[in-house]
Amino acid sequence: MKLVIIESPYSGDISTNVAYLADCLRDSIARGEAPFASHAIYPMVLQESKKEDRIKGIVLGYQWMSRADLVAVYQDLGISTGMSAAIDRAKDLGIPVEYRSLK
Fold it and tell me: How buried is residue 27: exposed, middle or buried, by Cβ count under 10 Å (0-12/13-18/19+)?
């Protein structure tokens, strides 16, 4: 089973983006993958509005990414700045990046 980092938008319209993320996770699971979405977990305990916390969350997510088999970028709602940085990080780590759409 592939370990897959899910990249999708979070900030902005958070309720819409979290609902979209749930669909992305379901899609990944249906593909037989084990998905992980740090951008949905860490904001529960870190404050996105605090720069220090946001950076900490990004660093923690990158630690998980370093162990992933694939980064799946769900792009129906666009690619945010944070997603773009994660794509660059995955490429630097030599982790394959796959662009996906649910529509």
Answer: middle
Alpha-carbon distance 86 to 36, whole Å? 13
Q: How far apart are CA 20 and CA 59, in angstroms?
A: 23
**Domain limits of the chain?**
3-100
Does the pLDDT at position 92 exceed 90?
yes
Residues 6-15 have a mean pLDDT of 93
Fold adopted by 3-100: Rossmann fold (3.40.50)
pTM exceeds cut of 0.70: yes
Render pLDDT for 32-51 as a digit per residue (tens, 0 to 9).
999 999 999 998 999 988 99
The Cα angle at residue 58 between residues 65 and 46, in degrees rounded to 5:
125
CB of 48 within 8 A of CB of 55?
Answer: no
